[in-house]
UniProtKB/TrEMBL annotation, chain A:
This is Cation:proton antiporter. Belongs to the CPA3 antiporters (TC 2.A.63) subunit B family. It is found in: Cell membrane. The chain crosses the membrane at residues 12-31, 73-92, 113-130, 136-155, 175-193, 213-237. Signal peptide: none annotated. It comes from Paraliobacillus quinghaiensis. NCBIfam families: PRK08386.1.
TrEMBL record, chain B:
Residues 11-76 form the MrpA C-terminal/MbhD domain. It is a multi-pass membrane protein. InterPro entries: MrpA_C/MbhD. This is MrpA C-terminal/MbhD domain-containing protein. The chain crosses the membrane at residues 6-23, 30-47, 53-72. Its main location: membrane. Keywords: Cell membrane, Membrane, Transmembrane, Transmembrane helix. GO terms for cellular component: plasma membrane. Signal peptide: none annotated. It is found in: Cell membrane. Pfam families: MbhD (PF13244).
Length: 240, 81
């Protein structure tokens, strides 16, 4: 009886996988053939008019931080909420770390690689409206510095270099600065978080200080994501 | 030529995904995840989506692996040797 039961459960699992694969196949087939029979006005408008209207040569950034900037505000608020709730929930205890101490070659390599990571993160944030990248990706790269310090040395050392109060302060600066930059559009007589329509001067497309508010919004999101992810990681590693 | 490489990459993607799900050892599964992410990044670069490739590289190869390693370290897995 038990062998029959085992065989039945195995068949059940395989059947589930096959059903799911067939469902995904049908779904992707339908999505793939979606755009052939109807015109997509909005995406054609973004592609043909995006650079003139927003001044950003990276069209993904022009959608994220100009046309659909309100959605980006929601995503950034989600990370802020997650970091806040984790910092509340996790008790402040003595951190328990790995049982395996690293050799000195790992420590020296981490010391050597951290400045390059910092430069890469700053480049990704500041050039987010020109080349691929942006605030989220650059913020994650900057937060990896704190994560590497936590993994190789200890939580105490990482919190000695980057104090928790400083990280919370930086995250608050990012959160409040994003909303204040959005309110700047209302003061000039346009909508909330409007950038291209508010006549801030888009500048020459391709320069660093162009595309209106976009570099500053990128900077705020980068600060916020980097501090938030570092807080989340350090809070999770402290838990027993 | 690029078609052959493209389809080979898709094949490796499927192989790594199945290995990740059906392997017994949990640490093997965690280390296969950045491999899956690296193949996905190459596919994104061939499809000319560098922004998505950057995000996928950082998320899957960097952040997710660190989080999974920490999570497995916190559990009792592999300590009763």
């Amino acid at each position: 009886m038990s062998r029959l039961n085992e065989r039945f459960t195995k068949l059940y699992k395989i059947g589930l996988v096959i059903t799911f694969a067939y469902f995904l196949l049908v779904l992707f087939y339908d999505i793939h053939n979606l755009g052939t029979d109807r015109k997509r006005y909005l995406s054609e408008h973004y592609i043909s008019q995006g650079v003139q209207e927003t001044g950003a040569t990276n069209l993904v950034a022009s959608v994220l931080y100009d046309y659909r900037a309100f959605d980006t505000l929601g995503e950034a608020t989600m990370i802020l909420t997650a970091a806040t709730v984790l910092a509340f929930l996790v008790p402040i205890t003595k951190a328990t770390m790995f049982g395996t101490p690293f050799k000195s070659i790992v420590n020296q390599t981490v010391k050597l690689i951290i400045p390059y990571i910092a430069v890469l993160g700053a480049y990704l944030i500041l050039f987010g409206h020109i080349s691929p990248g942006g605030g989220f990706v650059g913020g994650v790269v900057l937060s990896i510095i704190a994560i590497l310090l936590t993994l190789t040395y200890s939580v105490e050392f990482s919190e000695y270099i980057f104090k928790p109060d400083q990280k919370k302060f930086i995250e608050d600066i990012g959160a409040i600065g994003f909303v204040l930059l959005g309110l700047l559009g209302i003061f000039t007589g346009s909508n909330f978080l409007s950038n291209g329509q508010a006549n801030f001067g888009t500048g020459n497309a391709g320069e660093v200080f162009s595309a209106g508010l976009m570099p500053f919004i990128n900077l705020m999101i980068g600060l916020k994501v980097s501090a938030g992810l570092a807080i989340i990681f350090n809070s999770l590693i402290k838990e027993k | 030529m690029i078609d052959i490489i493209f389809h080979l990459l898709f094949l490796f993607l499927i192989i790594t995904a199945f290995f990740m799900v059906f392997t017994k050892d949990l640490s093997n599964s965690v280390i296969t995840l950045p491999l899956f992410g690296a193949i996905l990044v190459i596919i994104f670069v061939i499809l000319q989506a560098p922004g998505v490739a950057l995000a996928a590289a950082i998320m899957t190869a960097g952040l997710t692996t660190a989080f999974f390693v920490i999570t497995i370290n916190k559990t009792e897995y592999g300590r009763n040797e």
